[in-house]
Amino acid sequence: MRISQKLEYACRAMAQLAKHPAGETLTRLDALAQREAVSANFLVQILNDLKRTGLVESKRGKTGGYTLGKSAKEITLFDITTAVEPSMLSHSLTKDGESGPAVEKAWLGLSTQLTESLKKVSLSDLASSDESTMFYI
Q: According to the lineage, what is the superkingdom (predicted)?
């Protein structure tokens, strides 16, 4: 499976923000970019997408920064994916031809399984310091 760089960076940034309780601590953009080895210019675009969907909140100014918009337990990989890469979960299949309906059914089933799996992984799971955590799809 190919995950876009944008989605990967979004997950990494969100995991970093999840290490601090929502609303209690602001993380500066430059610190976040440095910790996750991501370009600050690209990261700000990603954070704006996450902000539009309410997953991230920001405060401007000298003491500003970013924090989660809700608890890490309430945010899932599905939420992050739909915020920054909604086309990843969309499909455009046709029922044309004799095999069209069978192919469509197979891909729709796989899409449903992926969506359900993404909903099972919370941001708190990603932010866990336990390196042995295993994710099953």
A: Bacteria
